[in-house]
Amino acid sequence: MVSMLHVAEVIQDASLRKSFSVKEKHEYVLAIDDLIARGSSRRQACAMVNLPHNYYPRFKKVMKKIDDLDNTGFVPFKTNGTARKIHPGHPSLLQEIREDLSHFVFEIRQRGLQVSTRMIRQEACRLLPSFRSKSMHARKRIVTRFTKKMGLTHRAATHTAQKNFNETEEESRHFLEMMKEKLADYDPSDVINMDQSPIPYSYNSSKTLEVKGKKTIHVRCSTADTKRVTLAMTIDASGKMLPPMLIFKGATNGRIATREFGTFPDGGHYCCQKKAWMDEEMMHKWIDLVLVPRKETTTPGVVPLLILDAYRVHMMGTVVNRIQSLGIEVIHIPPGCTYLCQPVDIGINKVIKCGMREKWEDWMLEGEGIVDGVAKEPTRKLVAEWLVSVYTNMSGQTVRNAWMKKGYEWF
User: In what side-by-side order are the strands of the sheet with 228-236?
Assistant: First the structure.
């Protein structure tokens, strides 16, 4: 409940005010209702908060109107805070073609394409000759206000793909139905998923906490902003994580491999590739270092199942034939469906990168990332230590949740 002291601090002399914000009206109504509930009359309650008694029923009606608006869903104008009126404003020039524009946006988004305000301006010019006669500045302002009233705003994409998302969702559903039938008699420990992901050395962000109103915001960038290592993550459906394989940039049998890898932490496998990519050679190394030892622990006669995405290297005949020769069946997820069907993508990748960001931030706070006043990159050994620590300390329940989140709840 709003305190009397707070209301008095907000407005000390109501008679000197010409208007009140919606927030202030709300506070007055709450305070007066509380006093009335304690036995005061309306006039006494209004006098106690220094508000003319005839203002109270007006404020009460405003609050009732706001409650009714909030219950209808999206409201294109402010109903709280510092707003002094709850009014949609003057009708837009585009109001008469609102339905056409809504349909235009809906059709494009259904196809998974991006919609810009420029596209809406062009469609509005086609539909409404009077809008075409406006200046470019006026068109931009009109469309900006109109899209806001329609409940549209610019959003960052959370998933990008070449196919339409409706098509990929349908393919994903069929794939999961097939997997449900296929894995009915499998032990969870015999179902394996592997994928690789680029892990940056540094985690600089363009956003930071800063004082409001400051014009220029300074942030430092590291000399390793584009440097990365590829991490091959392998998990099984029982919640176990198989050893990670890290691919650094360098010659396969060069200085890094022969001199540095011996000092890296136990618990991980380390390789070099000229661009730090997962190529055919690296896939065979992963088979030797991770998959073969895993197969050796399998119960004799059991054929484990390896789930891979449709990445080109994963589908090479030499790679697939090698895996199958070990007595492991390979199933490929349909292209564009990994975000719905691949456990590593769904529940592991982000956890690893968030953990790496925390390690990097702690390292920077300790001052080790600044040398002679310049932000430097962490060493390969340090990156390996961070990755192995984050990877091996992930809980089995987190890994299980990755399988259960999207269609594997039955497993």
Answer: 269-273, 241-249, 228-236, 191-200, 305-308, 329-332
Q: Provide CATH code, domain 173-204+220-404.
A: 3.30.420.10
Torsion, CA 396, CA 402, CA 408, CA 409, rounded to 10: 60
pLDDT in tens, 337-366: 888 889 999 899 999 999 999 999 899 888
Q: Tokens standing for 261?
A: 């890898």
Q: pLDDT tens digits for 223-259?
A: 555 789 999 999 999 999 999 999 999 998 899 999 9
* Angle, in degrees to the nearest 10, between helices 136-149 and 117-127: 100
Contact present, 215 and 369 (Cβ < 8 Å): no
**pTM, two decimal places:** 0.69
Annotated domain spans of the chain: 4-70, 95-149, 173-204+220-404
Q: Taking Cα atoms as reference points, which of 109, 24, 12 lies closest to residue 59?
A: 24
| Mode of pairing for the β-strands spanning 191-200 and 228-236 | antiparallel
Burial grade of 278 (CB within 10 A; 0-12, 13-18, 19 or more): buried
Q: Do 257 and 272 meet the contact criterion of CB atoms below 8 Å apart?
A: yes
What does residue 235 show for φ and ψ, rounded to 5 degrees? -135, 160
What is the distance between the terminal CA atoms of the chain, rounded to a whole angstrom? 49
3-state secondary structure 165-198: HHHHHHHHHHHHHHHHHHCCCCCHHHEEEEEEEE
